[in-house]
């Protein structure tokens, strides 16, 4: 993994050049047929002086539409926005090839609205793949995911009319229980399920637990059933590959077919930046032929989407370079490690994957009052919580951590547990 960092000036130049390569709604070239235009000028006036130094804001104001998928051909989907579409293409290439180690030119992708859309896009592709290639009936296809998975899995299964097989995990290690998996899959097969859309978490939201993609792949291979694995790295996609040099979540792993990696979680980009990456040859299964007015057709769930979102992701990756981003993510892990050591000193039971910045603490060690004061998130707001989690994000100050830990210690000393 390597890409060089760029200076702010270099980034500015590239982004402005890409905006100029788009046809400008204000420019000389006539644009009579597009149902889009620049942002309303009463509020978003284009001669605001700061815009000259603000490439992302300039992209927002010029308002390019990145409808469609831009990695399928070097030709632009909508010629009007060909300049900024090139940045999206470069972004997909960078993330797929440098961060997830894909072979050059062998991945497609787009900037979805978020992890939810990217996960559902994956399920949609594989559902259609099984229908087209195996003449599967809807009732024969199931989505398989652990009970710690994000709620976009049941949401997607519901929208796509698929059944769910929800895998049990060990209450301590949060690992998928393999014996239970065998029983659940056997039961589903006896009930007529023949095709499996398998989700592997590259970190669950609640625990930061990471599923064993190879165990999942080996299991379904040995069963000799058609399956596809999608990796939900909405949370971990921009941290784990940098903190674990031997990550198995790369396109070199034949079990992996697609990945969700949100910009708006660890990459600190604006909301609306959920990256979807997929091996070439698969996204065609969700081609909407009826997208008559889009020259390149549409393959996404979202339709129209802002080109500024792709630009924001590209800019952040470029300003840091791979070494800079690695340093930043490793620093977050170091900070997390330090908190864990303190918790151990107080004999507090917690779960943490060493490559991630999430600590799930057993709820008995923390009062609800303290959890509320520090905005810790509980595993359940419906039932009594079993866990509270800390996420060591870039805004988390050491001082805040220190006072929190002191308060935990004081509470424990005053109770029976400590
Ligand atoms: C946040 C998250 C999602 C959903 O992402 P949105 O961007 O909120 O749609 C899916 N999976 C995991 C693991 C997440 O952390």
TrEMBL record:
Protein name: Cytochrome D ubiquinol oxidase subunit I
SUPFAM superfamilies, per the entry: PLP-dependent transferases
Classification via PANTHER family: PTHR42735, SPHINGOSINE-1-PHOSPHATE LYASE 1
Keywords, sorted A to Z: Lyase, Pyridoxal phosphate
UniProt keyword Cell membrane, yes or no: no
GO MF annotation terms: carbon-carbon lyase activity; pyridoxal phosphate binding
N6-(pyridoxal phosphate)lysine modification, residue list: 265
One Pfam assignment: Pyridoxal_deC
GO process terms (BP): carboxylic acid metabolic process
Similarity section: Belongs to the group II decarboxylase family. Sphingosine-1-phosphate lyase subfamily.
Cofactors (names): pyridoxal 5'-phosphate
InterPro entries registered for this protein in UniProt: GrpII_AminoAcid_Decarb, PyrdxlP-dep_de-COase, PyrdxlP-dep_Trfase, PyrdxlP-dep_Trfase_major, PyrdxlP-dep_Trfase_small
């Amino acid at each position: 993994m390597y890409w060089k960092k760029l200076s702010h000036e270099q980034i500015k130049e590239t982004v402005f050049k890409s905006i100029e390569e788009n046809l400008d709604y204000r420019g000389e070239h006539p644009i009579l047929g597009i149902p889009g235009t620049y942002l309303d000028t009463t509020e978003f006036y284009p001669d605001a002086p700061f815009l000259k130094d603000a490439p992302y804001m300039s992209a927002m104001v010029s308002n390019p539409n990145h409808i469609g998928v831009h990695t399928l051909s070097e030709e632009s989907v909508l010629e009007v926005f060909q300049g900024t579409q090139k940045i999206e293409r470069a972004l997909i290439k960078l993330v797929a090839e440098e961060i997830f180690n894909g072979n050059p030119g062998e991945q497609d992708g787009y900037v979805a609205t978020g992890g939810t859309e990217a996960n559902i896009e994956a399920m949609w592709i594989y559902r259609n793949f099984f229908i087209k290639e195996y003449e599967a009936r809807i009732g024969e296809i199931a989505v398989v995911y652990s009970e710690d998975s994000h709620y976009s899995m049941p949401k997607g299964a519901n929208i796509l009319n698929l059944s769910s097989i929800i895998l049990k995990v060990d209450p301590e290690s949060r690992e998928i229980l393999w014996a239970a998996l065998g029983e659940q899959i056997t039961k589903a097969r006896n009930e007529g399920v023949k095709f499996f859309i398998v989700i592997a978490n590259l970190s669950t939201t609640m625990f930061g637990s990471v599923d064993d993609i190879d165990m999942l792949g080996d299991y379904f291979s040995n069963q000799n059933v058609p399956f596809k694995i999608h990796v939900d790295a909405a949370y971990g996609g921009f941290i784990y590959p940098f903190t674990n040099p031997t990550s198995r979540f790369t396109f070199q792993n034949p079990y992996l077919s697609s990945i969700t990696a949100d910009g708006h979680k660890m990459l600190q980009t604006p909301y609306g930046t959920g990256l979807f990456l997929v091996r070439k040859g698969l996204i065609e299964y969700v081609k909407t032929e009826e997208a008559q007015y889009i020259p390149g057709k549409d393959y996404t769930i979202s339709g129209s989407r802002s080109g500024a979102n792709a630009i924001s992701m590209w800019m952040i990756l470029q300003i840091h370079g791979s070494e800079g981003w690695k340093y930043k993510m490793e620093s977050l892990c170091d900070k997390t490690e330090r908190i864990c050591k303190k918790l151990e000193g107080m004999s507090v039971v917690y779960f943490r994957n060493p490559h991630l910045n999430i600590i799930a603490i057993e709820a008995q060690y923390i009062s609800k009052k303290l959890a509320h004061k520090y905005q810790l998130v509980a595993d359940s707001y419906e039932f009594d919580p079993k866990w509270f989690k800390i996420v060591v994000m870039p805004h988390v100050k050491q001082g805040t951590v220190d006072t929190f830990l002191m308060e935990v210690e004081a509470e424990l000393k005053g109770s029976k547990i400590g």
